[in-house]
Amino acid sequence: MATKPGARAIITLLSDFGTGDAYVASMKGVILSFNPQAVLIDLTHDLPPQDLRSGAFILAAAAPYFPPATIHLAVVDPGVGSTRRGLAARGQGQYWVGPDNGLFHLVFSQGADLEIVSLENPSFFLPRVSATFHGRDVFAPVAAHLSLGVKLARFGPAVTAAVSLGFPEPSFGPAAIHGEIIYVDRFGNLVSNVRAGDLRSWAQGQGLHFQLGPIQFRGLSRTYTDVAPGEFLALEGSHGYLEIACALQSAAARAPGQLGQPLTISKG
Amino acid sequence: MATKPGARAIITLLSDFGTGDAYVASMKGVILSFNPQAVLIDLTHDLPPQDLRSGAFILAAAAPYFPPATIHLAVVDPGVGSTRRGLAARGQGQYWVGPDNGLFHLVFSQGADLEIVSLENPSFFLPRVSATFHGRDVFAPVAAHLSLGVKLARFGPAVTAAVSLGFPEPSFGPAAIHGEIIYVDRFGNLVSNVRAGDLRSWAQGQGLHFQLGPIQFRGLSRTYTDVAPGEFLALEGSHGYLEIACALQSAAARAPGQLGQPLTISKG
Amino acid sequence: MATKPGARAIITLLSDFGTGDAYVASMKGVILSFNPQAVLIDLTHDLPPQDLRSGAFILAAAAPYFPPATIHLAVVDPGVGSTRRGLAARGQGQYWVGPDNGLFHLVFSQGADLEIVSLENPSFFLPRVSATFHGRDVFAPVAAHLSLGVKLARFGPAVTAAVSLGFPEPSFGPAAIHGEIIYVDRFGNLVSNVRAGDLRSWAQGQGLHFQLGPIQFRGLSRTYTDVAPGEFLALEGSHGYLEIACALQSAAARAPGQLGQPLTISKG
């Protein structure tokens, strides 16, 4: 399997642009104008406008399933036209292009071997860069040039660290874990910031008690149908985080407003 | 035209995952990791959650327009993690991969020449299979391996019949057909379970009277603009089923709650 | 870069079909049945049903970013099955296929070098053409044949002009420009029909005053963050039209019902 971008490179796209306007298509047109062989795959464009956290979560959840050397072009960009930096990076064996505003926080915080450059070489941008749409004018052409084999260093000077996002981290105490809900998916499953692997290490096989606001229950489930319909349950989500769900129903509909709510896990 | 899958095979994807989460993208990443040449086409991911009937209808409506040997990967999977079987199949000259829960009912019930296997060979799954996302961990890698030419028999033992869906069938009497509405499209057109060809054979050119709840009218139209704006009409939908529509308006908005409602067609 | 369609041609798709039904997928299946090498890119399918103006706007905004010889297949088709003509055309160095109902108005009105034919040769259609879905039965196969190198003239006789759309044009007076809002994007930005280049020529560097219903303010901004959060602003949108926005908020939510509302720009 290729470990460097090539003409038939895979470029994923993530944004908060929705799919109803011309924005996403314009970015794809730009990429194909530079590299007609590129394979374009949408991660999502339905992020809530300017929601960097959800974007960071989806990047971290989907990217590991793509081949090495995949290029991820991600644009959630409330600061477009301001002085916020644009970046291209190599990390986790893949490539990353977008604004330096924390969107890549979860990806970059997991890896040691990380190379980041600041996008400062306009010869890889569109000839005329608008003040409002760098996704099309800066990031798409940079991703396309990356896919053609242009080296990272040619896009601009190295930078030592990208902007962090202030993503909430759970606290692990001897008696309890204090986490919070960081993402709600289409089925109304409530994804927490507690990694399932960390939970397993902490629990050492003991029984678990979960409390999310007024909702309380015991026991870790394996599937969404381990409990009776309508009952709440906790399980290891497919993305690797602990998830609170409701059997055959939407937990988010049953317990609304949970994004950011504290989740407490205790032993016994 | 190829009649067997090959490296540049077409793989369609259908699900109820929506396009806002990482689920669909993760499946695409898995497929491209095994077969970077695969051509990925979305049927839809906007099915109402766990709506097997709508999924079955869309598969049956869209698949015939794809080339022979296309692989259709379909995941509406309320029973994921339970004992429900996964299947791969060859039928109608194409390939089918997904849970064995009725999703392929309309496709499989139309064809005589059908070969189905139960997915039991983990060497074609991801190394670690989660309890909650077989779309990514089982069905996507199986579809990818099919596209690389792996024979059906290698995925598991043959099974004689897939699960049926209890799809409603219309009854044809000498004086009337009793059918029902099985699908509502984006334009609010109400699709019935009466196949247009069967209706023509039954009607023998006689005039027709339609009754759907309080809505009554006479005559079969050819296009959506055959009657005055706002009037109801019946016509042969592009999918081959009789459809109740409203000229330049949404029939579903004018007559809500019609999914599952009885439709009576009589002569005269 | 190729200037003629070829086997690995890019075909974009635009429609008001949504992505929840089988319509879009059926068109893609038809194209790939004729040309399995075609590269399919969605412009959008989320147009409000039968909204020709929004379709025309998105075509005009996105198409220039695609490579020469790209084929744009666009289907917003309230008159399907009536006597409205179907067309294929070459203009702006690209190809255009769809109903002749004004959908290509903005594209065709910009270019001098335009060749249009009426789709009358059924040997390039599907064998059975339905009365309700020419996107699948007529336009998709025509686009596919174009991508395989079939010459325009073979699809039917030349026509001298396509149907116009009655797109509103702004009036430029010595003291004021009278325009209107023609499009609202996902972020609630209000796009006017005043081209930014025309505004610059008219303003000659003088200060500007904007009035949109009760909203009034002075000054042209460069980015969405040039004013305080919640304040209205005007800037050159990335599509080249003057746009009314609201810093870090949705202008459409703050000032609803603006589509079609008059916008007055005066000097001073």
Model regions low in confidence, pLDDT < 50 over at least 5 residues of chain A = none
Helix count of chain A, per DSSP? 6
**Most extensive interface, chain pair and sizes:** A-B, 37 and 30 residues
Task: Estimate what percentage of residues of chain A fall within beta strands.
Answer: 25-35%
The pLDDT mean of chain A sits at 93
Radius of gyration of chain A: 20 Å
Oligomeric state, counting identical vs distinct chains: homotrimer
Structural class assignment of chain A:
alpha+beta
Terminal residue distance of chain A: 47 Å
Structure, briefly:
With 268 residues, chain A is an alpha+beta fold.
Characterise this structure.
- 3 copies of one chain form a homotrimer.
- Helix content of chain A is 20%, strand content 30%.
- Chain A is built from 6 helices and 16 strands.
- The first copy, chain A, has helices at 23-34, 52-62, 105-108, 134-147, 196-203, 251-254; strands at residues 10-15, 39-44, 71-75, 86-91, 94-99, 115-118, 158-159, 171-172, 176-184, 190-195, 208-212, 215-218, 220-221, 232-236, 241-246, 262-267.
- In chain A, strands 8, 9, 10, 11, 12, 13, 14, 15 and 16 form a 9-stranded mixed β-sheet that branches.
- In chain A, a hairpin with a 5-residue loop joins strand 9 (176-184) and strand 10 (190-195).
- The mean pLDDT of chain A is 93.
- Chains in contact: A-B, A-C, B-C.
